[in-house]
Amino acid sequence: GSVVASYPYDDSPTHKPTGVYSKSADDEVFRYLAKAYASNHPIMRTGTPNCPGEEGETFQDGITNGAQWYDVEGGMQDYNYVWADCFEITLELSCCKYPPASQLQQEWENNRDSLLAFIEKV
């Protein structure tokens, strides 16, 4: 996991494991929606999630193009965009895939304003 808003495309023509910006026709819209979420999240907006084992990983403005981060062939957000005209971003909300119940209130507080800002944009 991480703390970042990722947007299409997750797959690239070269299928290199990482580092290939795979721009969609609606890249500006996706960046706008991802930034709307990330800029309202206290950790995401810093661009430095500081996840254990990935302390050096950074994301400018708390967002990333999926394939630039890591290539995913056949991912759901790409499939929905290409075949259903659905604009979808992926939100990585925690370094921990299954946070303990004691952390859920803080996770809600971290994401509340981001969710409201994202809903307003939609």
From TrEMBL:
Pfam (any one): Peptidase_M14
Domain named Peptidase M14: residues: 1-122
One GO cellular component, as annotated: extracellular space
Keywords: Carboxypeptidase, Hydrolase, Protease
Gene Ontology MF terms in the entry: metallocarboxypeptidase activity; zinc ion binding
PROSITE patterns: PEPTIDASE_M14
Taxonomic superkingdom: Eukaryota
Record GO biological process: peptide metabolic process; protein processing
Catalytic residues, chain numbering: E92 (proton donor/acceptor)
Homology family: Belongs to the peptidase M14 family.
Protein name: CBPD Carboxypeptidase
Organism the protein comes from: Nothoprocta pentlandii
